[in-house]
Amino acid sequence: MKLQRLEFEPITILYNRVDDAVLRQGRRTIWGDLTADAEGLVRAEQDRVPYTYGLFIQSKDGKVNDSLKGGVGRMSGQPADRFGQLELRAWVDAFLVGGATLRADRVIGAPLEPELLERRRKEKGSSAPLNVFFSAFGNFPEDAPVFRQPGIRTTLFITDVAADRRPELWKLTPDVVAVSSEAPLRAVWNELWRRGITTIGLEGGPKLMGLALQERLVHEILLTHSPLVLGGTGGGLTAIEEPLQGVRTELLFLGLDESGQLLFERGRVVYG
């Protein structure tokens, strides 16, 4: 199947700032209630894959912010973007990114903010989701901080073409799994399902997100972008160069950040 453009349906819902204020009272949130969509949950169970939230962050100004002291770490997006990512991490059983994202964003897999850490402990009974990193050829940065943090569970997935690299990857984590290079992401999702993982947060660039959509693994899209670029050339998932035929989204949630600059758009993915 040829990879085609994923387009969001035109936004027809007007933003209501009062609703957003109510949403934030007592429990700060970007995405609202992240309970799985009923139709998507049925499909996930039938396919024996975890329910998947695809997260795509676009910086308001197209730049990357380095918000860690001493210039260590490369963080994409604005502070509200980052909170939305951490909020998703506090909700899901596992958080998956590709090797390229891990190499670019040095704080992927970092501990949650105290507010979200406490929220996760109350709701999930654990302090952090399983970190899952995928690279077809096993190209993971050995100096990534996540590999040196105590108490952080990490699984590396590679394809069979890189199976001979497992001994060197065991230095990063003992949990290294090689999957078939045929439909590799579906093999990853199936393995995580067998391990009892029921929800995944997927943060990817266009390549990884496009592959997951092509394999029909994404149930919701959580997209952050600026209203300033909605009609322009930057447009989030429009970075996927060719359309994904038969894929559309239905809007579930729409909001702005407190400054009115960033748009948070959540939609269920519908496959034709």
Task: Give a structural overview.
This protein is an alpha/beta fold and 272 residues long. It has a single domain (36-271), classed as Dihydrofolate Reductase, subunit A (3-Layer(aba) Sandwich), CATH 3.40.430. It has helices spanning 17-24, 38-47, 79-91, 99-104, 114-124, 166-169, 184-194, 206-214; strands at residues 51-57, 64-65, 75-76, 94-98, 130-134, 154-159, 176-179, 199-203, 220-225, 247-256, 263-271. The strands form 2 sheets. The protein has a 9-stranded mixed sheet with strand order 7-6-5-4-8-1-9-11-10, sandwiched between helices. It has a two-stranded antiparallel sheet with strand order 2-3. It is globular, with a radius of gyration of 18 Å. Mean pLDDT is 74; it is low at 1-26, 60-76 and 227-243.
